[in-house]
Structures are given as C-alpha cells and as structure tokens.
Amino acid sequence: PGELRRRPRHWKPLVLVIPLRLGITDINPVYVQAIKASFTFKQSLGLIGGKPNHALYFIGCVGNDVIFLDPHTTQSIGVVDGKEHEHEWKMDASYHCTQASRLHILNMDPSVAVSFFCRTEAEFEGLCESIRSQMVTPDRQALVEVREEQLEHWTPLDDTAADALGATALSFYQDRQFDDSDDDFELLG
C-alpha cells in the first residue's frame, strides 16, 4: 500500500467535515462518549446535525445534554461603526446570543457531521493523536478511524482529482458487483 503521509509542498488550513450516521432512527448510545469527547478537542468546530426535521449547530455539551444554536434564528443586517447611535447598539447586541439551548444527546438526529479546523499541519497531527487517544479506546465505540497507511483499494494519492474520482467510482462499482448483502433484505410495499 502507498504511504498516506506524503508531505505537501505547503500546508493549507483545513476544515475537516466528517458526515456520520450514528444509528438508524435514534443515536446509538454506544457513541455518546465519543461525541462528548469530540467537543473537547481544540480543533473542534462542533457538530452539524439537528433533531428530526430541524437542523441545528451543536457547539458543546453539559452532562448528557448538547448545547446548540439554531441557524434559523434571523438577525437584522447592518453595520456597526462606532456605536454612536442607538440603532448601532441594537445591531451590535444582535451579534451575540443571549442564551444557548440544550437537548438531550439521545434526542439528536443520528445523521450528523463532526467538524474540525486545523490551521497548521501540527494541529492536524494533534487532532489525529487526540482522536486515537480519546475516541478510539477499548471502552468506547469509535466515531472515526485514523489510518497510517492507505487502504489497498483506494486510488494513489498522486492522481489528479478527476482521475481519483473516476477510479473511486469504478472501484465502488466493482466492489458492489460482488456484494450480496442486499439479498438479505426484502422491500415490503
């Protein structure tokens, strides 16, 4: 297998968004500790998710409750210059939340995306180490896996984006031709 850690010429800041499905209709309780751990990483941007039929942005947790902001809350648009006029004071106040809401972690929709920001390569390496040491432990079900080496069926890292996407699609199609797991299910209608 090819080596995963080929050094780029110049590191660029990275926003890493990892979509996850943590249950069928509800969050599986085995993931709760790993979700809570993800908020403690200094690179954490929180979770994008929600409750059924309502998108939310989760920014932390207290006990078994997650703290969230509602992106549907609208604010007035305007410019805050020197805060010399009353409307500028009101506008400035609208940039801050007066309260954050809470939701029991098991009431979240199981479709979430955990998000991180790594400004430097060292921060990315630190994130990988935090994931390995705090989320991939024998007493917790891992949310993600960090690999040192590339999987054999993945395309080489030096391919262009178009070639990589094409090869990945071909690889997926070839893998599915021998996948008979769908035979175990029957659609009722």
Structure description:
The chain is of the alpha+beta class and 189 residues long. The protein folds into two domains: 14-150, no CATH class; 153-189, no CATH class. 26% of the residues lie in helices and 22% in strands. The chain is built from four helices and six strands, in the order βαβββαββαα. It has helices at 32-40, 86-93, 121-135, 161-177; strands at 14-21, 44-51, 54-62, 65-69, 101-104, 111-118. A six-stranded antiparallel sheet has the order 1-6-2-3-4-5. Strand 2 (44-51) and strand 3 form a beta hairpin.
Number of helices: 4
Order of helices and strands: EHEEEHEEHH
Distance between the termini: 45 Å
Radius of gyration: 21 Å
Which structural class is indicated by helix and strand composition?
Answer: alpha+beta
Strand order within the widest beta sheet: 1-6-2-3-4-5
| Shape, per Cα inertia axes | globular
Q: Mean of residue pLDDT?
A: 79
The number of distinct structural domains comes to 2
Q: Are there runs of 5+ residues with pLDDT below 50, and where?
A: none
Oligomer: single chain
Q: What's the helical proportion of residues?
A: 25-40%
Pfam family, one: Peptidase_C54
Catalytic activity: [protein]-C-terminal L-amino acid-glycyl-phosphatidylethanolamide + H2O = [protein]-C-terminal L-amino acid-glycine + a 1,2-diacyl-sn-glycero-3-phosphoethanolamine
Family: Belongs to the peptidase C54 family.
Subcellular location: Cytoplasm
